[in-house]
Amino acid sequence: MFEFIGRLSKAFNPTPVPKSDGVLRCGILGAAKIAPLAVIIPTKSHSEFIISAVAARSKDKAEAFAKKHGIEKVYSGATGYQDLLDDKDIDVIYNPLPNGLHYEWTLKALAAGKHVLLEKPSTNTEEEARILFEYADKKGLVLLEAAHSRFHPAFIRVKEIIDSGELGKLKNVKSTLCVPRMMVGEGKNDNDIRYQLELGGGIMMDMGCYTLMAVRTTIGAEPLSVISASATPIAFGTEEQRKTIDIGTEAALAFPSDVTAEIQCHSRWPGWGPFGLLPRYPDVKLEATCEGGKITLDNFVVPTLYHKIQVVPINGKKRTEWAYTFKDGTGEDWWLTYRYQLEAFVDKIKGRQPKTWITGEESIGNMKWIEEIYKATGFGVRPKSSFVLSEADVASTA
Ligand SMILES: NC(=O)C1=CN([C@@H]2O[C@H](COP(=O)(O)OP(=O)(O)OC[C@H]3O[C@@H](n4cnc5c(N)ncnc54)[C@H](OP(=O)(O)O)[C@@H]3O)[C@@H](O)[C@H]2O)C=CC1
Ligand SMILES: O=C1OC[C@@H](O)[C@H](O)[C@H]1O
């Protein structure tokens, strides 16, 4: 219990470290709710990263955000986002805009010569994700989808155990991320970005992206097909929203070598008991079944709070493992998934080998199968952006 409290207090309130020479200066596009957790807190304990600027549409909001988080430069108004991208002192952009704006503002950031940490899911469509990652490659810039759960040692350990063959051939992987209302970023707000189609809304986008990434990475291959998929529409909003925006989705996927996978996500996980009034415990799990046994990782999305890796061989002794740091000592037990992610991102920019990485192809694959799942549910794909990069920017590789 004391360990848990100690980990939590350091995770959310790390001791700031001095910044080194060659520190990377990051600008945040939008005073987003997720920015403190995803980059501002992790930056405090990283010597080579600093949050130097924020841009928000409203001047008051931008200034209040900058003051609260000790950010030096503020951009705002109609040109605020572009002014931030044009700032020559900024090396890196963190893009936590609504999903439907990821494509436009990441393209613009890359065109301005910045590395980009891009919130998940990378875009609204597979095609857009491909364009972004190809453009980043062409420009020689680092672009990373911030699918933070992939960077934690607990997730990597599960993959390592499966790949070691100790449990035999992999047969099935399941991943769930189902939480009661109020536990997700949308809070009470039915007008949240998550429910606007144009902005890339839908819970398969918002939360299903983690479960899909988890099964694809664990299996280490791309799906062959969607076997089945169904989605529950939101119970509010317009008729159009109820046809296209899911509050929960489940899907079964076929992979090569007769491997199958199931994913399930829900952001207003119904309660149980009389009138469904009793809230259900969040179901956040990764589970792999092999010919010789089973392995589960409880809480694969927020493993720093707690997690448990259970290995249950058919013939052998059951064991439990925990992996708060990497075996070679990399990391701290209190590092959040976001802190591991930042470590990898900075390593990549600095030309060092990150402990783990999400390639562009992996992110593009996630968008492809999010789209396939949406098609199979009948909710349809998310609309692509109308933004087009100028010919000059396309041609420029500097
Ligand atoms: N990694 C993680 O754990 C999480 C990731 N996310 C991801 O982060 C992103 C942002 O999520 P979240 O922080 O909850 O979002 P917010 O509701 O806080 O919105 C983010 C920002 O979008 C900007 N914005 C620009 N245009 C619009 C528009 N037309 N309508 C609404 N907002 C607009 C706002 O900027 P301004 O300040 O300029 O007004 C706002 O600050 C999403 O991609 C989401 O998937 C979200 C939660 C957790
Ligand atoms: O990325 C996310 O993870 C946690 C959820 O609260 C949130 O809705 C989602 O955007």
TrEMBL record:
- Record-stated family: Belongs to the Gfo/Idh/MocA family.
The answer to whether the entry has keyword Oxidoreductase is yes
GFO/IDH/MocA-like oxidoreductase domain sequence ranges? 155-295
| A Pfam match | GFO_IDH_MocA_C3
The record's InterPro entries line, in alphabetical order, gives: Gfo/Idh/MocA-like_OxRdtase_N, Gfo/Idh/MocA_domain, GFO_IDH_MocA-like_dom, NAD(P)-bd_dom_sf
**Top-level taxon in the UniProt lineage:** Eukaryota
What protein name does the entry list?
Answer: D-xylose 1-dehydrogenase (NADP(+), D-xylono-1,5-lactone-forming)
Catalysis: reaction(s):
D-xylose + NADP(+) = D-xylono-1,5-lactone + NADPH + H(+)
Q: Does the keyword Translocase apply?
A: no
